[in-house]
Amino acid sequence: MARKYELSRLEESFVNYGINDFNIKQIVELIVCRMVNKNDCRRITNEVAGRYRTLREFINAPAEELRAIPGMNEQCIIAIKMIHDLPSRYLKEEIIQKPFCTSSQEIFDYLYYSMRDLKKEVFRVIYLNNQSQIIDTEVLFEGTLNEIHVYPRDVQERAIRHKAHSLIFVHNHPSGDPMPSHNDEKITRDMVFIGKVLQVGVLDHIIIGENRYFSFASAGMIEQYENEFLNLRLKMNLKRGYSPKIEYA
Fold first, then answer.
1. CATH annotation of 96-239
2. What is the domain partition of the chain in residue ranges?
3. Cα–Cα distance list, 201 to 72, 102, 103, 223 (Å)
4. Highest mean pLDDT among 110-114, 201-205, 233-237
5. Which of 16, 163, 175, 211 has the smallest number of Cβ neighbours within 10 A?
């Protein structure tokens, strides 16, 4: 009876004030203890507090790892995985069909929770319509800890299938450092060039690190690549004997 009273007080405190002042044992108790008996609740909270340094580590733990915790059942695991996925779903609903404008910060906020703890590089594409609203997002390529192969043809085929007017690329650096590699720069430049040919614009390429990101658009590199493409096309036209039409007043 005393245990139920303690849990009720914990739940009441959560409803009224949130969990900012809770320790990890109290948070775990709040999640699981309505789904297991008193002894299992105690075993779970003690095990989690001893095994995981942070709530983030616990929530990100694989299902197989959670099943190894004494007293943990499938209902608890489902609840934990729901808590893990809800922020991404909430942020997706916040941003979908919303004018994108130039906010790389919004894209970072939307995808950070789902990409920050990945152990390998993942390349995601965001498709936008001609109103700069997000149509859909999907993971197209997966790599290793520090490398990923991106195939422009596959990207453009998916863009056409989605009837996208423009694209935003997002990938993660598991090392936590979001600064672009030479290969990141080359891929982005190639995609901007191909997009110009096919009339599918590249708005940005965002690299997600630990609590920070790098935006090719914010750094002026998307504009730089667009200018390089225009200069290259002008040189090719001049080489073929074409010249810009000049009108005199």
1. 3.40.140.10
2. 2-86, 96-239
3. 49, 14, 16, 11
4. 201-205
5. 16
